[in-house]
Structures are given as C-alpha cells and as structure tokens.
Amino acid sequence: MSDPRLAVIEKRLRGVQRVVAVSSGKGGVGKSMIATALALRLRDEGHTVGLLDLDFTSPATHVILGVEGLYPEEEHGIVPPTAHGLSYMSITYYSVDEPTPLRGEDVSNAIIELLAITRWGELDYLIVDMPPGIGDATLDTLRLMPRIEFMVATTPSRVAFQSVRRLLVLLKDLGVPIIGVVENMVMKPNAYVREEVEKLGLEYLGSVAYDEGVEEALGDPDALRRTRFYGELEKVSRGL
Amino acid sequence: MHEWALAEGVITTATRFAEENNITEVTEVVVVVGELQQVEHEVLEFAFENLKTPLFENAKFTLESQPAKFKCRNCGNEWSFTSEGMTEDVSEAIHFVPEMAHVYIKCSQCGSPDFEVTEGRGVWLATIKGVKNDE
Lengths: 240, 135
Description:
CATH class of the largest domain in chain B: Alpha Beta
Shape of chain B: elongated
CATH topology of the largest domain in chain B: hypothetical protein PF0899 fold
Radius of gyration of chain A: 17 Å
Structural class of chain A: alpha/beta
Strand content of chain B: 25-35%
Strand order of the largest sheet of chain A: 5-6-2-7-1-8-9-10
Number of domains of chain A: 1
CATH topology of chain A: Rossmann fold
CATH class of chain A: Alpha Beta
Strand content of chain A: 15-25%
Largest sheet of chain A: 8 strands, mixed
CATH architecture of chain A: 3-Layer(aba) Sandwich
Number of strands of chain B: 6
CATH superfamily of chain A: P-loop containing nucleotide triphosphate hydrolases
Shape of chain A: globular
Radius of gyration of chain B: 18 Å
Distance between the termini of chain A: 40 Å
Strand order of the largest sheet of chain B: 2-1-6
CATH architecture of the largest domain in chain B: 2-Layer Sandwich
Distance between the termini of chain B: 39 Å
Oligomer: heterodimer
Helix content of chain A: 40-55%
C-alpha cells in the first residue's frame, strides 16, 4: 500500500524557507565547491543554512569542509550536526570512505530515506549539492521537494555546456524555478556561455575565474574564504 | 529508517487515508517492516503511542516483519540477510539508510556489491481498518 516515508518529507522541510539545488549537466565543473562556498557565504551573511550532499557516488562537500568525527544526533529522527556553522548532512556519515555502488532504485530509496529522517528545523536556506546529470537523483528531488529551485553550474567548455543545456531545457519544460547559471573555472573571457544562457531566456549569474588557490584551501573553510573564488561568488549569491 | 520518523510517517499517511475515506475512528493499522531496516519494534510501538492523535485512540498497531533476501546480479546467488558479525556502526548505517547494505554487504558467493534486495527492504502500510461515517 502506501510508503509512509513520503508523508514525512514535506514535514521535514516545512521550516526551510528556500531549497536551492546546485546542479550541473556534467561532473567536474566545481558544483560541490560552489554549493559549499555558497552555503558558507550565506551563513557569513547571517542566514541559517543547511547543506545536504546528495551526490552519493562521489560525495565531496565533507572534504571541502574538512568534516571529520561528526555524527548526526538521534532525536525523534536525525538532527544534522553543525559543521562550520552549517547544518550538514551527508551520506558519508554512514558510508565513511567506502565506495557506494547504487543503482537507480537504490539512489531513489536512499534519497527518500535521508529526506525522511533528517530534521532540519528552521533554516533560511537549504543548499543541496546534486549529483551531475538528469538521472534518478535529479528526478527524485523534483518529485520529493516540489519547492526546489536550481542554480546550475557550468565551465566555459562547449562540451560541458551542451550537457548543461539539456538540464536547463528539462527544468524549463517542467516549470522548475531556475535561479540562473554560474560559469566556473573561467581561464579567459568568452561570451559563449552568457549568450547561450540568455538565448534560453535565463539569468547569467556571472563568471568565476579559475583559482589555483582553491585546491590549497580544501578542508579549511577559513582558507577558502580568503580565496579569489570565494570573493567572486559574491555576485552569484546576490542572484539569490 | 528511524523508528520515530517511521511512526510519524505511518500516522500521517493513515490520517490522510482516513480523511479521504470518511473514516472517523481507526481500529487497526498493520505495518510491514522489512528486516533490513532493523527497526526495533518496541521503540516503534512506543513512538506510535506517543504520536497518535484521537483518531487512533482505540487503534491496534500491528507490526509484521518481512525477512530480507538478496539476489546477486552478477552470479545469481540468493541469500538471506543476517546482522550477525556486523559491527554496531555498520548495523546503524544500514538501519538509517538501508541502501548502505550495498556498501557493507557483498555477495556470499562472488563478492559483488551489485545485488538486488528481493524482499525485506521497505516499510509500508498494509492495512487500515476503521469505522466509516456514512452520513
């Protein structure tokens, strides 16, 4: 008959003002870095912020934040621990560093399970680091979190943008709110992505230059805050 | 899944069902729980008692357990779940997110993590009985 997990998801997100998915059609565009930095930036601006890593096969936000030794508290469900001021939830609490080989249905079930057990409480923003592409996880988040808005990341590469375009067209066709597109890892100015985004009638949130310093700042949010990347993300967070 | 989240989900779903079907008093709710969830029945019953609304005042909550079975997609081997020999951390990980079985359990014959949970994965509301208002 009915799956009782679905009924609680809506309740779990009731205290969250905005749910923002940071997504991309393709992997390797810096989506997790943008999601994490954006969450930290919103927190620095005085908002209450949650960060949910839904990239089960390649979780990365725990590495960027340098999360170690944290574990969710059990209290009528799961209360996400606080990492650098963020309510932080990741599958890595349970999978640790082991590979997580999940097929589509398993991905769906794991997403449902995490959304059903996690008690976010009151948040201004819940930033969701999405797996790349338009597969099960993307379709499930659209189904399970109807209020979700998308911020889409790309690189200047035409290859990356072709996949991003497919994601954007899908979201547009489904009537999902799209905050805009961030062009990341820009090495030399080029109008290609901006023009393509504008042709789709969408907001180009800005470009973020390739920053070698980001790798050095992994695991240290204070160091990340000092990078040029973090500074340049200000225009992106203004898009919210 | 956590027992309290599960109890909350069952009550919310059953309430919705009762409203849609003009049921004014629920007399019985049967929940089937897959073994992989490793739900503690006593905790779940306690959660039901604490979360129930007047609609469930006289309701009997029945929990049925379904054994978990696996079938390897690689070699076809079929075997049953056992928590024997599992560390507490692994057991807890599978309890909260049963898909973690694919992280910690391997086919007992070929060692592949690519297996199907053929039975005993889910939790679902099997039966709701109640008194209907026919007015």
